Amino acid sequence: MARIHFISGLPRSGSTLLAALLRQNPRFHAGMSGPLAGMVGALLAEMSGRNEFSLFIDDAQRQRVVRGLFDNYYADCGAEVIVDTSRAWCARIGAMAQLFPDAKVIACVRHVPWIIDSIERVIQRNAFSPSSIFNYSPGGTVYTRANGVAGTDGLLGYAYDALKGAFYSEHADRLLLVQYETLTTDPARALKAIYEFLGEPAFAHDTDHVDYDATEFDQRAGTPGLHTVRPRVAAIERNTILPPDLFRRFENDAFWRDPKLNPRGVRIV
After folding, report:
1. pLDDT truncated to tens, each residue of the chain (269 aa)?
2. Which end of the chain, N or C, is more open, meaning fewer C-beta atoms within 10 Å of its C-beta?
3. What is the DSSP string of the chain?
4. pTM of the model
């Protein structure tokens, strides 16, 4: 089977852009967040003690079943390197380390208030299309939406907690944090660090002609444009649409920016 690695981290932080860039390399397969992490969770739940027949399933069998899921899901993929994307992989970094001893996790991160801002922009842009992010509810305010995504089970809150768990875990050496700010202002440096981290030969990416289309998925989710990737990688300067007090609430949440909070020396680019 191909070598397996993962893209994880925070939402609205460049994971789809990164996948669109990596797939330019004919040796790589990458895409937006997919179903595999959820399927792994469903399998583990069905093989747990809640199943009356779990007495007949040991850990070795569980690992083989989950590994078989990867093998079969990507059976038709001819790439040498597969990079699967899900915010859940940070939460499962220990399990993936057992399944794939050489696997690495690229975690995309971004200054947190700008993540909230980006989500709110998508919602306001699609005012007549309720989003799956909020269970298709058309109500709420910018404050209730921010509280919802930042909550423990929210789009951002879950991913943030999973990232922190991986960052401080014994598997932190498998983790590379790619800041959205670096990816959009200096993509060559970000990609160089990624290839070195994965132990793969460098590839000349075209950051002026990037292509990725998830139109059908986004429309079905009630969030047209959610995974839109601009054809040219560039940082876009803009003012926030968040109220000042709401923006300030999340300003100090980028723990990875403080070297004193990085005791395991996680690589950050």
Report:
1. 689 999 999 999 999 999 999 999 999 999 988 999 999 999 999 999 888 888 888 999 999 999 999 999 999 999 999 999 999 999 999 999 999 999 999 999 999 999 999 999 999 988 888 888 887 888 889 999 999 999 999 999 999 999 999 999 999 999 999 999 999 999 999 999 999 999 999 999 999 999 887 777 767 767 776 777 888 898 888 999 999 999 999 999 999 999 999 999 999 99
2. N
3. --EEEEEEE-TTSSHHHHHHHHTTSTTEEE-SS-SHHHHHHHHHHHTSTTSTTGGG--HHHHHHHHHHHHHHHTTT---SEEEEE-GGGGTTHHHHHHH-TT--EEEEE--HHHHHHHHHHHHHHTTTS--GGGTT-----HHHHHHHHHSTTSHHHHHHHHHHHHHTSTTGGGEEEEEHHHHHH-HHHHHHHHHHHHT-------TTS-----HHHHHHTT-TTTT---SS---------S-HHHHHHTTT--GGG-GGG-TT--EE-
4. 0.93
